């Protein structure tokens, strides 16, 4: 029996990169992949430049809120993608861990965030192709 694969995106503040990645994955994969995002030190709100950059491509992430990274979120995910949170992410056997090295959009304007957004979209598209071309196992 196959189950829906699940992905957890983790960055420090859960306000920019991980929220953009989760937005793209939800938008592009629909119900085919379960999506989570969290941060090791969550910000108080979504990065406005990240929200603006995403709205330019038709994805609204303004209703999202930064969430604290929990052990349960990692345990419930098949793939954990970190974006600059280093060693603060708990490691569990049987999970697939990846580190996406991406510039931090914190404090930057939308012009600087657009190339980060576009790189995230490219990586998410490749992730979708990978996860939907093979049976998911839990």
Structure description:
- The protein has 138 residues and is of the alpha/beta class.
- It has one domain: Rossmann fold (3-Layer(aba) Sandwich).
- Helices cover 36% and strands 15% of the residues.
- It is built from 4 helices and 4 strands.
- A 4-stranded parallel sheet has the order 2-1-3-4, covered by helices on one side.
- The protein starts with 5 loop residues before the first strand and ends in a 6-residue tail after the last helix.
- The mean pLDDT is 90.
- Keywords: Arsenical resistance.
- Pfam families: LMWPc (PF01451).
- InterPro entries: Ptyr_pPase, Ptyr_pPase_sf.
- This is Arsenate reductase.
In summary, what is this structure?
Keywords: Arsenical resistance. Residues 5-130 form the Phosphotyrosine protein phosphatase I domain. This protein has 138 residues and is of the alpha/beta class.
